[in-house]
Structures are given as C-alpha cells and as structure tokens.
Amino acid sequence: MQDTDWDDFRVFLAVGQAGSLSGAARGLGVNHSTVLRRLGALESRMGVRLFDRLPAGYAMTLAGEALRERLQGVGEQIDAAQRHLMGLDLRLTGVIRITSTDTFMAGLLGPILADFRALHPGIELQVVMNNLFLSLTKREADVAIRPTNAPPNHLVGRRAGRLQTAVYASKAYLAKQAADTPLAAHDWVAPDEGLSHLLQAKWLREQVSPSRIAARVDSLVGMTQLVKRGMGLGMLLCMLADTEEELVQVEPPMEALDTQVWVLTHPDLKEVARIKAFTDFAYARLVADRKVLALPAGRHAVR
Question: For this UniProt entry, which residues form the secretion signal (predicted)?
C-alpha cells in the first residue's frame, strides 16, 4: 500500500460508494476509462480482486471490504489538510519588512500600511524609515517603497507614477518681502549633505548662493516644516506642501525635478505570497492616489 497513489484509493472508495464505474467517474469529475484504469492498476499491485463485476454493478469482495475498513477516515483527513493549507495561504501570515522614507510615511504610506494590515491581520509589518536604500539582498528589508529616479539595478518592481516639486513659501514670509524679489535674493531652506543626491538639491546649488541658505535639513518633511515657519523659500514636494494651509506655491512645478515612485523587491522574493500580496496592494493604492501623477506616455512602468 505504501507505493500506491492516493488517487487510486480515492477511485476505489468512489466505486464502492457509487456501485458503478460511471457513477464513480461522475463523482470524481473524470472519465470512465480513467476509473477503469486506476482500479485495475490498484487490484494488480495489491494482487487481489476488490470488486465483483455483477450485471447490477460493482460489489465489494471481502478483500475490498477489508481495504475500505483500513481507509476509514483517511480521505476526510486528507481533504481537511488540503483545506487547512489553502486557508493558511488565503489568510497570509509572517513578517514583511518595508524600507521607505519619512516623506512617504507622512504623505502616502501610512494609510496603505494600515489598510493592508486590516485585510491581513496575520501579517506583521516592520517599517524602517531611511533616506538611503537598505540592502534587500542582505534581507535588511523585503520591500522598498521609494521616490527615486535611479532604483538599484538588482531590484525588480513597478513604477507607480511620479511626484512633483515646486518652490513654496509661507504666507507670513512673503508678506515681509517685496513682490519683485528674485528667487536668488530670498532666504532658503535647503537639503543637507545627506540629501545632496536629490534633484532639488542640485537645482539649489546652481541657482542659490550658499550665503542665502538659512537652514539645511536632512529630511524633506523637516524642510516643509521650517518653510512653514517662515524661515525662507524651499524647493518642496507638492504632496507635502499642498496639505499645509500656511504655504503658498511661489513657482509652478518643474518637470525636470519630477521624482519617480517605485515599489521594489528582490527577485528571489517577488513570488513569495505575502510579499506579492503587499506589493500588488501598495502599487494599486499608489497609482490611484491623486498625489502621485501618472507616468508620461510611453514610459515603461515595470523593470
């Protein structure tokens, strides 16, 4: 019996219950010849006749009755085990470690994480906020959700859209300035060296003298708060600044400073059920968010 396929036993039990090959075939969702072949193979391997072929149908022999007794409850246990495993897969469990920025947590990510956790309470979310990419290869994180125009080549994922950047100031600050003051003559809140790779940091280096920098901050969220307090102009993300009633857009967004939004993971993790569920969910929510602009026509969104 240990070398026998369980499906052969299922056929045996189905024939015994139905009393015919055709009835067993209907119950199992297979054709008549499959039932005949499997039943014949089972009898051949066991070296006994399990059914008497009678004009009225198939009747179990004594050997068949003994086998049915030994199999009592086995089918139910296997079916229950399959349902249990399917249920575990549907519920999804485990840990997902996500790396992102304070910018994303403040502007986009919080509701996404909360809603995903409500759908999958068996999953624990661990969030690491860092302006640098953690090494997904070393499993410092499973998923990266980040604004970047240069995602690491070893990661795979989808580009959900883009974020705009523009010059903002507080109403209180502008009230103290002449209306025709050139941008370069204003005080500025700028990114510090830790954010020197950002496009807005490069723009400031080219357009504004270091002597006009009132403050440098290692966080775009922090920059937004200092501009709001009237310390000067700032090149801010629109998704953050537009939610602040005190802030005014001084210049329209500059397309050259647009930042792409990526949902990324390591190639070895992309088909893990909980990772795929989360990246699909996060991507769909980001695409639907009005703060994330659509990609220009012709841009590929998958890498």
Answer: none
**Are residues 159 and 268 both part of a single domain?**
yes
Residue 96 and residue 170 in one domain:
no
Q: Quick check: 32 pLDDT over 90?
A: no
Residue with tokens 């967004």: 253
Residue pair 130/97 in contact (Cβ under 8 Å)? The answer is no
The number of distinct structural domains making up the chain is 3
pTM to 2 decimals?
Answer: 0.66
Tally the residues of the chain: 303
Q: What CATH number did the domain enclosing 225 receive?
A: 3.40.190.10
pLDDT tens per residue, range 114-124: 999 999 999 99
User: 24: which 2 tokens?
Assistant: 């067993």
Distance CA 234, CA 220 (A): 10
Q: What distance lies between CA 294 and its chain's CA centroid?
A: 19
